[in-house]
Write a structure and sequence with these properties.
This protein is mainly beta. It has a single domain, classed as Neuraminidase (6 Propeller). The chain is 3% helix and 51% strand. It has two helices and 24 strands. The strands form six sheets. The protein has a four-stranded antiparallel sheet, with no helix packed on it. Strands 2-3-4-5 form a four-stranded antiparallel sheet, with no helix packed on it. The chain has a four-stranded antiparallel sheet with strand order 6-7-8-9, with no helix packed on it. A hairpin with a 3-residue loop joins strand 19 and strand 20. The chain is globular and about 45 Å long. The chain starts with a strand and ends in a 14-residue tail after the last strand. Bound molecules: beta-D-glucopyranose and calcium ion (CA). Beta-D-glucopyranose (BGC) binds next to strand 10 and strand 18.
Length: 290
């Protein structure tokens, strides 16, 4: 079934960070602006929502059980039962003009996440790497909005965005976690393409990119060639990940923030969770090894 389907009309303000947890047969995602974590059980179709006193901006499962994630200040343990967080490392607690945004675990169990400038004008955002021994490493600076870390099949290329600058960068990622060779992979013009947001790599090593304000996903070959474009019925497409027992379904988050009443009437599914089966599978989701 090759069509985009709305599976949960959540009316999220800023749906983000879809996460597949195979052991639970569940998709999780967050609503950054409503301080919420949502869970969809693919077996029973049960839906659950937890509300925190702080925003959970990204979520990852942990090898030792439970979840880690990010709040506006940095890296935390996320406890869904008690809707509470426990700080791990908070590198931006002193920067109220910034907040953490997207985050992803690499094939070596390291958790990558970055920050953004809340005003979306200044390059105060930083990309960090949290290792399993809980040491923090500053990996890149100068971002207005960090977004969508994603990793190639062999783990040797990392993709990472500055949404406001319209840039998708590629880096060489060494096995010790260091980065080199930062280069532009795509440059998007907002008026035509929207802003580059969340991303994931499929089992054929191609990159799926969410277009915030661009109402679609694009599949890029590692060469940068466009292989497919998938339109969505809403403008603000924020992220995507592969899930389902066969890893054959893209779960796609969207946002309704900053839309006028007229736009919301035109795009009533804004903020919903969508699925799409592209005919290619994803990769298993790595867990944080700390
Ligand atoms: C951020 C939003 C931002 C959007 C588009 C998202 O990842 O969380 O704050 O508006 O990207 O750049
Ligand atoms: Ca994002």
């Amino acid at each position: 079934m090759k069509e985009v389907t709305c599976v949960w009309q959540t009316n999220a303000e800023l749906g983000e960070g879809p996460l597949w947890v195979a052991a639970e047969n569940c998709i999780y995602w967050v609503d950054i602006r409503k301080n919420q974590v949502h869970q969809l059980n693919l077996g029973s179709d049960a839906r659950q929502t937890w509300t925190f006193s702080v925003a959970i901006t990204s979520l990852a499962s942990r090898q030792s059980g439970g979840f880690v994630g990010t709040t506006p200040d940095g890296f935390v343990v996320v406890n869904l039962e008690t809707q509470s967080v426990e700080p791990l490392v908070l590198p931006e607690a002193h920067l109220p003009g910034n907040r953490f945004n997207d985050g992803k675990v690499d094939g070596n169990g390291r958790f990558w996440s970055g920050s953004l400038h809340r005003g979306e004008t200044d390059p105060t955002g930083t990309l960090y790497r949290l290792d399993p021994d809980l040491t923090l490493h500053t990996m890149d600076t100068g971002y207005i909005i960090t977004n969508g870390p994603a990793f190639s099949v062999d783990g040797k290329t990392m993709y990472h965005n500055d949404s406001v600058k319209g840039m998708v960068y590629a880096f060489d990622l060494q096995s010790d976690g260091s980065l080199s060779g930062k280069r532009p992979f795509q440059k998007l013009t907002f008026a035509i393409n929207g802003a580059p947001d969340g991303m994931t790599v499929d089992s054929e090593n191609c990159l799926w990119l969410a277009h915030y304000g661009g109402a679609r996903l694009t599949r890029f070959a590692p060469t940068g060639e466009i292989l497919a474009e998938v339109p969505l019925p809403v403008p603000n497409v924020t992220s995507c990940t592969f899930g389902g027992p066969k890893l054959d379904t893209l779960y796609i988050t969207t946002a309704s923030q900053n839309m006028s009443a007229a736009e919301l009437e035109k795009y009533p599914l804004s903020g919903s969770l969508f699925t799409y089966q592209p005919g290619v599978k994803g990769l298993p989701t790595p867990q944080f090894a700390g």
